[in-house]
Amino acid sequence: MKKIALAMLFAGVSLMAADGKALSAKCAACHGASFEKAALGKSAIVKGQSAGAIETSLKGYKAGTLNKAGMGALMKGQVAAMSDADIKALASYVAGLK
User: Which pTM does this prediction carry?
Assistant: First the structure.
């Protein structure tokens, strides 16, 4: 019985885990599907950046302390509802794009 409960717990946790690919869908309009575009012709291209750099930027936008290329307010709105786990998953996904 304990093994079944433990297995169900792990299954539930994995289903609740943040999905970087799904989270990236709303970013594609400005950054491109592969994050190869300069958003609105202003931002740096995100593709090729490390997961740590992306995560730091997203957390800065969320906190309202980052305003690269005047995109702070727009990006703050985009990441406002993301949890730290969401941000980490998104950053890892984007950094892994080839």
Answer: 0.81
